[in-house]
Amino acid sequence: MSRIASGIGEGATARPAPAPEPAVDILFDCDTGIDDSMAIAYGAGNGAHFVACTTTHGNVPSATAGRNTVTVLDALGLTDVPVHVGAHRPMAQALQTAEWVHGEDGLGDAGVVQSTRPVAGHLGAAEIVRLVHERPGELTLVAVGPLTNLGLALVMDPDLPRLVRNVVIMGGAVNTAGNASHVGEANVWHDPEAAQLVVEAPWDLTVAGLEITMRTALPTSAIARIEASQDPRARLIGRVFQHYLGVYEPIVGARTCVLHDPLAMALALEPDLATYRLARAGVELRGERSRGQVVADLRNFEPDPTDPKEPGVVRLVDTLDVDRFHENFLRALGA
């Protein structure tokens, strides 16, 4: 089991907060950097039962994401959650990663001592297929990185959508600026082909994009509560997110950060934090400047779609109870 260097005492690990009943069975696909770590902590404290985690490229290479995922899980006391490394590159373009946002180690270069627990290699997509068949209709799939593992799983098994309870992704920038290109959000932009496979699949898909996640910046009072807390969970995240605060300060004009990935986890666990609209959507694959953009038809020229499992229909977040979301996050950290 891991500990946090120069922050948490020898052998000390955080205990997961008591989970409300019934817990939600989560299959978590991630590219664990800083906000993925925050999402894991949010889930551990708000009723997530992590069945397994799979990792992909994105914030950092997939193998690094696997090691980081095990490290965070173990630091939170979740030492029995298996982690499977998945796709190492996108389907149809070169690999790019974002260490400038998450630190060279993906955990903010904060001195987090890595877990030595074994990580299964190169089986992410296959593990998704296996687990969904093992527990049909039971698993909520939460994906907060590029969607390569999900895309590969759909290629492997076209029956996958009918076996998944529902899917929540952090991705896209509908009717707002991108963060990886003019209009492309990083998770979609890093593998647009995989994202299109996910969007066009006939499953209940909630999309938490930049149009809503950029409204979730923590107030300075919340930052202060995390940094003042002696709870091991808060001390872990408080160390890891210092790098993130520095990245976001010039973007949002305050020493804060945006809770991209934790929001996807929150909506999977507590959908009524938000209101939604259904829209037909797709991913731009060919545009010179618009490749990787999620394009949703917001015109209402035709009758609104009514079936969330209709191919190409996604559930977009309209409004969010940000204060409640922040309090849930702070509670999960013991802050």
From TrEMBL:
What Pfam families does the record tag this protein with? IU_nuc_hydro
Q: Does the keyword Hydrolase apply?
A: yes
The record's keywords, sorted A to Z, are:
Glycosidase, Hydrolase
UniProt protein name: Nucleoside hydrolase
An annotated GO cellular component: cytosol
MF-aspect GO terms: purine nucleosidase activity
In what residue span(s) does the Inosine/uridine-preferring nucleoside hydrolase domain sit? Answer: 26-327
Q: Which InterPro entries match?
A: Inosine/uridine_hydrolase_dom, IUNH, Ribo_hydro-like
Query: Per the UniProt entry, what are the Gene Ontology biological process annotations, in alphabetical order?
Result: purine nucleoside catabolic process
Q: What residue spans carry the region label Disordered?
A: 1-20
Report the source organism: Actinotalea ferrariae CF5-4
In which domain of life is the source organism classified?
A: Bacteria
